[in-house]
Amino acid sequence: RAGLARGGGKMASTAAGKQRIPKVAKVKNKAPAEVQITAEQLLREAKERELELLPPPPQQKITDVEELNDYKLRKRKTFEDNIRKNRTVISNWIKYAQWEESLKEIQRARSIYERALDVDYRNVTLWLKYAEMEMKNRQVNHARNIWDRAITTLPRVNQFWYKYTYMEEMLGNIAGSRQVFERWMEWQPEEQAWHSYINFELRYKEVDRARTIYERYILFNWIKYARFEEKHSYFAHARKVYERAVEFFGEEHMDEHLYVAFAKFEENQKEFERVRVIYKYALDRIPKQDAQNLFKNYTIFEKKFGDRRGIEDIIVSKRRFQYEEEVKANPHNYDAWFDYLRLVESDADAETVREVYERAIANVPPIQEKRHWKRYIYLWINYALYEELEAKASKRTRQVYQACVELIPHKKFTFAKIWLLYAQFEIRQKNLPLARRALGTSIGKCPKNKLFKGYIELELQLREFDRCRKLYEKFLEFAPENCTSWIKFAELETILGDIDRARAIYELAIGQPRLDMPEVLWKSYIDFEIEQEEYEKTRNLYRRLLQRTQHVKVWISFAQFELSAGREESLSTCRQIYEEANKAMRNCEEKEERVMLLESWRSFEEEFGTETTKERIDKLMPEKIKKRRKLQAEDGSDAGWEEYYDYIFPEDTANQPNLKLLAMAKLWKKQQQESEAAEVDPDKDIDESQS
Prior knowledge:
Number of strands: 2
CATH architecture of the domain at 364-479: Alpha Horseshoe
CATH class of the domain at 364-479: Mainly Alpha
Helix content: over 70%
Largest sheet: 2 strands, antiparallel
Number of helices: 34
């Protein structure tokens, strides 16, 4: 066994040894080959043979929608995998988007481009391919949006500007192309860009515009030269360059950009007074519509380095410019003139304010209608008040008032306010004859109630009662229907103690055929007689008034007057008046007025009457019932039914059948309720007995 084991071990070791030793080919001819091959040649041949051996891709014929979707899915997965491996390789994104575009999947292509821009928005090729795709597919607004984003994000890439302007020009949008050029020029590009803009204008025969662009280009070069000197710390040279530029352009071709650059240069040199002088010089000479940027920079400068007064000055100048534009656009915009005048009054000298006032009042309304003059006339009023109160120039104030009253077409309309203000001004100047002359002229030219009232009030304050009487006479000749004037005239005579004259005025007033407020006039006359304790005359007035009207308030007032007269028989007289009023109002169509009278009578009886009189008035009170009536529309068609309340008076014999019918209906209803109660009660008794 041991021998076998030893023999087996030898066999195993021999086998293992044979496996470890590799067989090496025996080379019989060890001489060098005639043609030597390099490693480079081997690699090149291997690469070439690899391409030769690569089989061509099979041609796929897609015959089904499912196959197409499967193909798209596989292709998209391949593209997405490539992007996921390396997001920064923009060519993968572009290939992916172009493949989607070839399938007319524009929305997917846009999404891919947007994702790519999130990865690298500075890539010029990406923006160009994106915009070209939109232009190929005639998506003009999308292309505009992309170009706008591109020039906003990368404004120094000239290729974007060139392609954007070319696209707008090809579309025939000349104004849009010009606008893009203007945006480009704000970035102060190189010389070629300016020449492109000039050539663009010349293609459309816009020589004046081309000339303006040349001027801006030359100005830009001046500023560039000055900044070069400033950059290299040659500040005196830079200042000389700016001064030469100002002299070169002169006052005819002034540009705000040059002065803004000059002012900023001086600001950097801490020469604040020079800056202020430059800004003011430019603002005084450049047209306001071309100086917006100048205003803005001047405001910023004053806020930084100026005092409060300087800031206020620039703000006032800016607002003045705005108001100038408004009134220039519409000279008859009187509200804008008011705001402008308020501004200049607060900050300017008297001559400037007068100049603006004269410009404002020169815009007379073109139509002679009062509604068009109502705002305009306040320009004159404010002008006169300014001259009197602020400028303290009484002569000029008088001239303003006189010019105003001469301008107003008094034959068509007038303004009593102007005449009264003129008269009050003359009184303040202690010139009473001129004030009376002005008011007299106004009444002679264009009489108005307000003028008469103002003139009379003036004379009352001066205690010129004879003049007041004459004015009232003129006033009542002009407007005899004005009850207020009659009452005021009579009150004046009453105050002066001439009672007979006041009574005569009242008699004349109530004798007029037409009055605007006759009830007020009669009440005033009656109150006047009551104050004079002329009770018989008051009764006669009430009787005369009742001959003209049977209004319920007149009867009630008459009864209350008799009650307050203080006589022994006043209660019986008052009751008699109520009786008379009730008889007179039986034929009245307005039943509410009769009810009002009876309620007043009942309140009187409750306070002063006996039980008999109270019962009597209770019997006279009407029954209130609900009725329905048919409604008709304006075209005559039925509009439904309406409920309303009506009153049935017991005194009216015509209504007795209605009252009887109503009483019978109430009795029947009562009997019905009693019979229903009787039917219910036996049941209750049975239940009680059972319980």
